[in-house]
Amino acid sequence: MEYSLFTRLAAEFVGTAVLMIFGNGAVANVELKNTKGHNAGWLNIAMGYGFGVMFPVLMFGGVSGAHINPAMTLAQAVNGMFPWSQVLPYICAQILGAAVGQLIVYICYYPHYKETESAEAILGTFCTTDAYATRRNYFINEFVGTMILVLGALCCLELQWGKTNYAAASIVVGFIVWGLVCSLGGPTGPGLNPARDLMPRLLHQILPIPHKGSSRWNEAWIPVVAPILGGMLGCWLFNVLFAI
């Protein structure tokens, strides 16, 4: 069934919002003061992001492809797998969805944002930073992580076994994200998605949050550029090595 462009954009919007609610919501639950999940640990965050990708792919994969990530949209367009005419509308829907999803997280955790005094903990619920405070490390981890994510997702969803059993493939994609956050997420967060970092960072800048500190715009280009380039390489590897 071919869905209208409006319906596909709605799917990208809602899907990206769901990603933010599950992913950054899990971070807020762990990092913010006096939540029920305060200090629950990294596994809780990894699960949040894994489910935050799994559910939109299950919900909307058959509608829009569930890119929910500008890096995935651009990677497929560059490699001839997605029409350029739809790239800008898809990315606009994704970044707006990311903003709305992050705003929902902020509203739901509003009292805890007011109580939290750690600027680093607050920023972590919005966007990524590098634990080692080096831009080179930041770039490398976002690049490699997104390359693996895009390659893995395409292998699951585009190869014959995934097309035959899309639900199973969608679940595996969620586990890929869960595994990436557990294995390569320590240095940066990770972001692996320009919309997931850029729009929440903008909200961090403008929302009236006590003790929030700097939004660190001097490094904000890294979780935008590195995932885009990494995604392109991952998609190219899929086309060269595995596409039928």
UniProtKB/TrEMBL annotation:
It comes from the Bacteria. One of its GO terms (cellular component) is plasma membrane. One of its GO terms (molecular function) is glycerol channel activity. The keyword Transmembrane applies. It is found in: Membrane. InterPro entries: Aquaporin-like, MIP, MIP/Aquaporin, MIP_CS. Coiled coil: none annotated. Keywords: Membrane, Transmembrane, Transmembrane helix, Transport. SUPFAM superfamilies: Aquaporin-like. PROSITE patterns: MIP. Its main location: membrane. It is a multi-pass membrane protein. The chain crosses the membrane at residues 9-30, 42-66, 87-107, 138-159, 166-186, 220-242. Belongs to the MIP/aquaporin (TC 1.A.8) family. This is Glycerol uptake permease. It comes from Bifidobacterium italicum.
